[in-house]
Amino acid sequence: MKLWRLVVALFLVLSYAHGKDYVLIIGGIAGEKSYYDRFWNTTSQFYQLLTKTYGFDPNQVTFLFEDSSLATVADKSTIPNVVSAFHTISISATPKDRFILLMSGHASKSGRKLKFNLPGRDLFAVEYANTILQIPTQSKILFFDFPFSGQMVPLLSHPGMTIITSSSANEGHARSGFGSIMIEQLKQNPAQSLADTFSMTEAKVAQWYREDGAVQAEHPQIFGQRVDQVHLGQPVQSNQQDEGIASPFSQFELVERAAIDDDDSYRSTTVLWREDIFDVNEDSSYTHTVRRTVQIVGDDGRKLGRILIPYTRGNDEIEIPYARTILPNGDIFNLDQSEIKKDLMPPGTIEAGMFVDARLMQFELPRMGNRCVIDYAYVSKNRGHLLAGEFWQQIHIQESVRIEQYKLAINLPRQKQLHYQLHQGLEGTPTLSILPEIKSSNYTTTYQFAIEDVPALVDESFMPTQKDLAYSIAASTIPSWQPLIEWYTTLIREQDLLSDEIAEKVKELTVGAFTRQDKIHRLYDFVTNQIDYVGIELGIWAIKPHAAPQIFQEGYGDCKDKSTLLHTMLSEIGVDSYPVLIAAGESKYVNRQVPSLAYFNHMILAVVENDGTFLYLDPTASGQPFNQLPISDQNRWAMILNPDLVEPTAHQQPLYQFAKTPVQHNNGQRTTTSIQILETKTVVVSQEIQFSGYFNTLSCRHAPDEDGLETKSFFIDLLELDESVKVDKLIFTRLNQFQSRLVIDWQSPDYLISLGHQLLLELPLLPLKYDKLLKDDQRVSPVSLPTTMTIDQSVKINVGKSLLIDQIPENLALQHQIGRVQLTSSSSRHRATIKSVLKLNQTLIPADQFDRLKSLLKTRQQGKRILLSDR
Question: Exposure check for the chain: N or C terminus, fewer CB within 10 A?
Answer without folding.
Answer: N
